[in-house]
Design a protein that fits this description.
This protein is an alpha+beta fold. The protein has helices at about 80-85, 90-95, 120-130, 135-140, 190-205, 215-220, 235-240, 245-250, and strands at about 55, 65, 70-75, 105-110, 115, 145, 165, 210, 290-295, 320, 340, 350, 355.
Length: about 375
Amino acid sequence: MLQRVFAFLSGRQGRVSSLGLTAALLVACAAPPPSTLAPPIVVAPAPAAPQPANTFTDSVGMRFARVPAGEFLMGSDESPQALARAFPHADPKRLADLADEAPVHRVRITHDFWLGIHQVTTGQFRRFVEASGYVPESIRDGTGAYGFNPDYDPSRTERGDLFEGRDPRYSWQNTGFAQTDRHPVVNVTWNDAVAMARWLSQREGVTYRLPTEAEWEYAARAGTRTRFPAGDDPAVLLQSANTFDQETALRWPRWREQAGSGNDGHPFTAPVGSFAPNAFGLYDMIGNVWEWCADWYGEDYYARSPLNDPPGPATGRTRVRRGGSWHSWPLYSRVAFRNWNTPETRYVLVGFRLLREQGAGTGAAR
């Protein structure tokens, strides 16, 4: 468990308090023999591309895709030995610290739902803030957030945080790197994400919320059982997701061997939809920014998870986030990888995506 405290970038950055996001590590390349992987299953119908009847835009301009009800196998049972062959630069202690991905268990999603085809953008979040008067936590509590500063040296700080902060200079509006209205919003807390969902629910007359962890993984897999939506080899990430690559590693040379073998074209966040969608028509389910989920985190929850629509533990101290970010190593960009943070955490690698329980023809949808 202690190993996971040091993994925000690597993926496990969340195992730290919201005030002490500690520097971490991100991940490697290569793939093991197919025999080491769980057999593929496709139990949910997955269109090759989103069809017009399966997408719609709500009254505030957010686009959603219908995710059909179905069953899937959630989690991973790959051994540390198999992962070591696939990710040869990974710390063996970290590979042994992934037990919360098991056991692989069958999950049934009993209802269709509508999921944002993109991560919530800076422009969309700005529209929410301006229309509702909501003050994001990084501004309201006066402590700020985190940001990229090329002159910042983690080794000279007490906590060794990878990014500069917390600092009132940084917020969702200032990350230290270029963000347009088409980039995913970051430096937002779980509470900020829930506040936007509540505002949309009131405005649209239907329920908006964060997806559960099970809904998120079901949507991300879209009928696959591979490590990444595009396949098992970490090299597929360079063409399918914005994760830690050689260009990003130029700014963090300490972890260059953990980076992908090439460049994905985006040293920081990418405009949403820069890569191809998955079979459900969803973009950036892996990489770009971590996505908050509704659930409390439970390390052993998979062992007792119900079959139908798992809601996560009833209580907890940290909330789940999934999917990896632009600073996540390939090991931590796997679909099965789990991470978490306190609800008050705000960081330059963390954003969110919203779920709408009803689709076109309800509320103010068009």
